[in-house]
Amino acid sequence: MISKAEAAASLSEADAIGQRTRMAGGYATASPHLILWGAVWLVGYTATGFIDPRSLALVWLPLVLIGTVGATVIGRRARSRGARFATSPMKSLAMAISIALFFLAAYLVFRPATLAPYLVFPALITALIYLVIGVYGWPRLGWIGVGMFLTSMGAYFFAGPYLPFCIALAGGGGLMLGGAWLRAV
Predict the structure, then answer these.
(1) CA distances from 166 to 42, 46, 122, 160, 172 (A)
(2) Which DSSP category does 169 fall into?
(3) DSSP class of residue 113?
(4) Each residue's pLDDT tens digit, 26-45
(5) What was the pLDDT predicted at 66?
(6) Where are the alpha helices (DSSP H) in the chain?
(7) What is the CA radius of gyration of the chain?
(8) C-alpha span between 92 and 76 (Å, rounded)
(9) Is it the case that residue 75 has pLDDT exceeding 70?
């Protein structure tokens, strides 16, 4: 016979193992998305540093489309493997459209006078999202958000004309490194 305390300790340990397993599954599902969007970000911001700002849509629209299609494919594969956190292609598309409309609305409302806020704002919003997710029990995503926030703000204040390249590394490199870190769980 085991005592009530031993039974409670065993149940608590089993619950903790279950929580770690769910978290590892969530990180495994998120990892390829972070790597994909990190690559999109890295290419997009690097290209932004070389082209006329009036031509940004020619770079970013195809990249966002590629990222959305890639995320849909990744999501489908995850769902077929029974991933708990995978989402449907329609939800992925709705999320991409919602994010694009949010950024468009924010830029229309605030009308930045220089290119710098246009470059840094997506990094700050992405960092905020990861920080909030981290607060709600996914600490590694929170740390990715902290890293993105600090490097993006540092770039904003100190990078000057190299801002697009620094944001490419802060955001794209940060997401890719974060994706690799999540994969290692």
Answers:
(1) 10, 9, 13, 10, 10
(2) I
(3) S
(4) 677 788 888 999 999 999 99
(5) 92
(6) 4-48, 56-80, 89-110, 115-135, 139-158, 163-167, 174-183
(7) 19
(8) 10
(9) yes
Going from the C-alpha of 151 to that of each of 1, 135, 164, 165, the distances in angstroms are 56, 20, 12, 12
The DSSP code for 162 is G
What pLDDT score was predicted for residue 5?
84
Which residue is listed with tokens 């998305």? 33
Quote the tokens at residue 183: 């994969």
> Is residue 102 a contact partner of residue 119, using CB atoms and an 8 Å limit?
no
d(C-alpha 47, C-alpha 172), whole Å: 12
| Percent share of the chain, pLDDT over 90 | 37
- Report the alpha-carbon distance of residue 149 to residue 142 in Å, rounded: 10
- Non-local CB neighbours of 147 within 8 Å, separated by 6+ positions: 170, 174, 178
pLDDT of residue 106: 92
Mean pLDDT of 173-180: 87
